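YM 10:42: HTH lysR-type domain-containing protein sequence, as discussed on the call
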Amino acid sequence: MQLDRTPPYSSLLLLKTLCGKRNLAAAAEVLGLSASSASRHLSEMRELFDDKLFTRFPGGLVPTRRALEIAAQSEPILDGYAALMRPARFNPAEMTREVRIGCADNAPFSLFPKFADCLLQQAPNITISFLPLAEDRFLQLSSGELDFVVSPVMAVPPGLRSIVIGRNEYVLAAGFGSPLAAESRTSPLSTERVLQESFADVCFRTQPGAPYTTLREIAFPDWREARSSLRTTNFLSAVTTLSSSRLIMVLPKKTADTLANAGLVAIVETQAKSVVQTPHLIWHHRTDQDLAMQWVRSVLLSSAQET
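YM 10:58: structure's back
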């Protein structure tokens, strides 16, 4: 195949985004394109590279090998173009963009509680969006749908950066004024005693398509056999049930301390000690030279170190 012209930046960006989103309408929305413009760009790319680039399946558009090759080879070009268009100086007060962070609902007040205040004081015109952690969180970073992800992780895919942002220990919590908490202050509860109670569990998938598992099973493996009476993907929705029931739940210690100080939960002392996890701040390498994102990262990390 011989190319008699070069593909435009917008077409390369669409192809790269489409490799992640697997849906033309969704990719167009991310890039602010109309459906007709996105379709035209894709048709031009197919003609230019003499390849269908994507095959339609029930689950969406699947990139061909050639499309994946083009996406990988074009990444330095896209990064270079983005760097060319960035201003050489950065003033937080002039920043007007949205900062999108995928994280658990408890993270903003337990891992980096001063982040939003500090950011808004210096950059009053930005918007901070804390968004739910999706199964395709890494694809969202690659496509630009998210700027950062905060999540415990052992390894990240190629193209992503990560840094430890904290240390999570876990504790058992009950409703404020719970007799179980009073009982535990006399003597920390044994595993046998804990297993007599029913749990409100925060659950999640360890990888896309995997069965849901509970934080309890990860943090306290000896409590795997406990009864789960309520399951949710959000910490705060489960916390509200504790005050009106006898349910107990596993919480990150920093979250539990914050809620206990507010009179919303009571910490139950146990003989068992939790597994320790290290949440990471994760971002795509294309933002390494983005002065605004460099600054946001530094503020977030500083806030996390203060907790």
